[in-house]
Design a protein that fits this description.
By secondary structure, this protein is of the alpha/beta class. Helix content is about 30%, strand content about 20%. It has three domains: about 5-100 and about 200-265, Adenylosuccinate Synthetase, subunit A, domain 1 (Adenylosuccinate Synthetase, Chain A, domain 1), CATH 3.40.440; about 105-195, Adenylosuccinate Synthetase, subunit A, domain 2, CATH 1.10.300.10; about 270-425, Adenylosuccinate Synthetase, subunit A, domain 3 (Adenylosuccinate Synthetase, Chain A, domain 3), CATH 3.90.170.10. Helix 3 (about 105-120) packs across helix 4 (about 135-140). The structure holds guanosine-5'-diphosphate, 6-O-phosphoryl inosine monophosphate (IMO) and magnesium ion.
Length: about 425
């Protein structure tokens, strides 16, 4: 397999984990490169469901190296739960490797994220997962973060805490009215975190990466979230705090752009979004409810009902551009099996002026004035969940796929017709 990046091409939950798991069969190394336990990645194998938050979706195969990369943020308590749950299922974790450069989510990050969300009003509300993601990345960028390697450097950590903790406590008490932490509390927590991470700590990642390149090993980069949640390219400020676009695979993994050959964007046959922010094709009616119920659109991480809507080709074209997609994987096509009519948004219209946008307007403030321009397709009214080849798909399903390809300017190379590994059509 060529070195491949799998990213979400919408607002997350596109089915990236299912595609990553499938491709991981032919990869030697799988790397999660950004995000943290805000991600909820589901893999279904022979009707057994696995849910990952931090551990790469390739872990179900033996003899693969699965990296939690430098660009990620790790909340060790969630990591521990995930490790324990996989051990119970007898999954071999000997290939799990954690970058010493990844950032640690501390309890105060969780406190601040929770407090900010709970007290936010109106437009301030982002609808985060409250997993401390934003505050952890904020500290990383402001150079007040704790990295994995700090947990194993007693003296360095002590000095760092002397610098960071007084500031953090001022922020916690004065800005948020929250409880401060003592150095002893944080130090003992860091010792606990070090114990959780130690069996997987990978200090010789440079050697492993050099060898991988020399021996032409296959590398699979697993993205979390999606293009439209990217902190630079998404619907800012209604985004996450990392770079889910394909470029994030390089900064978050330690491999350069020249190593990557394929970039697969994963899109649902419709769109969902959890949390706040513009969503042009959102359906707040019984059709939206129908998609939610058939597609089981409830968050893997938070259980929140996902907002649902028609496929938005403007978003898809935008995602294809900013991530340089070489192909697309279209998931959940089966969710439309009972639909008479299926709509696709081809552009937006400004209700005030009649202006048509066929590119994505990045200023979220104008979205309240935009309405989607739709075209309508006939459904196929047939169960497609057992179909194994493209040729067997109903004509109307093929027409729908061909039209999406035309609108996005990207080939759909994988079609998913159910959650299970074997409910997948490769073209
Ligand atoms: P991720 O975050 O992108 O990995 O996606 P999630 O795991 O959060 O959400 C995708 C959900 O859709 C999971 O429950 C998958 O098991 C399920 N899924 C994936 N592909 C398909 C598909 O083609 N059809 C159906 N019906 N479900 C799918
Ligand atoms: P996967 O990898 C869907 C959303 C949150 C919120 C915004 C910011 O499973 O696709 P954060 O906690 O990151 O600060 O929240 O981003 N969000 C996701 N939505 N799938 C995800 O991950 C998400 N991770 C974060 O709902 O709107
Ligand atoms: Mg998810």
């Amino acid at each position: 397999m060529e070195n491949t990046v799998v990213i979400g091409a919408q607002w997350g939950d596109e089915g990236k984990a299912k595609i990553t798991d499938l491709l991981a069969q032919n990869a030697d190394i799988i790397i999660r490169y950004q995000g943290g336990c805000n991600a909820g990645h589901t893999v279904v194998v022979d009707e057994k469901t696995f849910k990952f938050h931090l551990i790469p979706s390739g872990i179900l195969y033996k003899n693969k190296l699965c990296f939690i990369g430098a660009g990620t943020v790790i909340y060790p308590d969630v990591l521990e739960q995930e490790i324990e749950s996989l051990k119970k299922d007898n999954i071999d974790l000997s290939g799990l490797k954690i970058s010493p450069l990844a950032s640690i989510t501390m309890p105060y990050h969780i406190d601040i994220d929770g407090y900010s969300e709970d007290t936010a009003k109106g437009a301030e509300k982002i609808g985060t997962t409250k997993k401390g993601i934003g505050p952890t990345y904020t500290d990383k960028i402001s150079r007040h973060g704790i990295k994995v390697q700090d947990l194993f450097d007693e003296e360095g950590l002590s000095k760092k805490l002397d610098l960071i903790l007084p500031l953090k406590n001022k922020e916690l008490t004065h800005v948020y009215g929250l409880k401060p932490y003592t150095k002893e509390e944080i130090t003992s927590l860091c010792q606990k975190y070090a114990k959780i991470i130690k069996p997987y700590l990978c200090n010789d990642w440079q050697k492993i990466f050099h060898e991988a390149l020399e021996q032409n090993k296959s590398i699979l980069f697993e993205g979390a979230q999606g293009v439209m949640l990217d902190v630079d390219w998404g619907t800012y400020p209604y985004v996450t705090s990392s770079n889910p676009v394909a470029g994030g695979a390089c900064t978050g993994s330690g491999f350069g752009p020249s190593v990557i050959k394929e970039i697969i964007g994963v899109s649902k046959a419709y769109i969902t979004r959890v949390g706040e922010g513009p969503f042009a094709t959102e359906l707040k009616d019984e059709t939206g409810e129908k998609i939610r119920n058939i597609g089981h659109e409830f968050g893997t991480t938070t259980g929140r009902p996902r907002r649902t809507g028609w496929f938005d080709a403007v978003v898809a074209k935008y995602g294809a551009l900013v991530s340089g997609l070489t192909s697309m994987a279209l998931t959940k096509l089966d969710v439309f099996d009972t639909f008479d009519k299926i709509k696709v948004c081809t552009a937006y219209k400004d209700k005030r002026t009649g202006e048509i946008f066929d590119y994505y307007p990045t200023n979220v403030n104008i979205h309240e004035f935009l309405e989607p321009v739709y075209e309508t397709h006939d459904g196929w009214k047939q169960d497609i969940t057992k179909i194994k080849t493209y040729d067997e798909l109903p004509e109307n399903a093929k027409k729908y796929i061909a039209r999406l390809e035309q609108l996005m300017g990207v080939k759909i190379s994988v079609i998913s017709v159910g959650p299970d590994r074997d409910q997948t059509i490769f073209r």
